[in-house]
Specification:
alpha/beta; 10 helices
Length: 209
């Protein structure tokens, strides 16, 4: 068995889920600045996540779901996942974003499992609180090691794909490290760099076989 782990926001999905949500409250610019600082490694991920989610307080849960179910996926996402599975990969998503988006995308894009965060809801509205699997900068690396143990997959048979600083921790435990339309901080640690918004470039690269 082989394992491929994708980031979700700006990797499998073209954009940042939280920015789409913030747009409904007309605070997209404010939230986007924090997102970019976190992805560039200039701000602690946990701090950035909790601060951004607090700004979403009061957003209707149904509207959140509607937005998360209409996000634009990256060109080639479905085709790439399908081909990787044909090649014997288990395909998993680790996201610092939200289960509203990743669990819905699972059935559309065809990956095997998702690990992400949960927006807390009170009386049908976001409370401004968040919890879940991917709260910290180290979370992806920590989860990858546990998943490798569970599936009996070593780093030599592991590929990871991401775009931002919170993907650095999982890069440490995979031999194939793909920086996809990524920030410079991640490109420096990658051995495959793809700068075109086309995920099929992965399956066409012999280093990713």
């Amino acid at each position: 068995m082989k394992l491929c782990v994708f980031d979700f926001d700006s990797t499998l999905m073209d954009g940042e889920t939280i920015d789409f949500l913030a747009k409904e409250l007309s605070i997209e610019d404010k939230v986007s600045v924090i997102t970019q600082r976190a992805m560039q490694g200039k701000m602690d991920f946990f701090e950035s996540l909790t601060k951004r989610v607090s700004l979403l307080k009061g957003l209707n849960e149904k509207l959140v779901d509607d937005i998360c179910h209409s996000l634009p996926y990256m060109p080639g996402a479905k085709e790439t996942i399908s081909e990787l599975k044909k090649r014997g990969y288990r395909v998993v998503v680790f996201s610092g974003g939200f289960r509203n988006a990743t669990s819905y995308a699972k059935d559309i894009l065809g990956f095997d499992a998702d690990f992400s965060n949960v927006l807390h809801v009170r009386d049908g509205l976001l409370s401004g609180l968040v919890g879940g699997d991917m709260m910290f900068g180290f979370s992806k690396g920590d989860m990858l090691q546990r998943l490798q143990t569970l599936l009996d997959v070593n780093p030599n048979r592991t590929m990871v794909v991401g775009d931002g600083a919170n993907d650095l921790s999982m890069f440490k435990f995979a031999n194939t490290k793909v920086a996809f339309c990524a920030k410079d901080i991640l490109k420096k640690e990658a051995n495959v760099v793809i700068d075109q918004k086309d995920l099929t470039k992965i399956i066409g690269d012999e280093r990713c076989i």
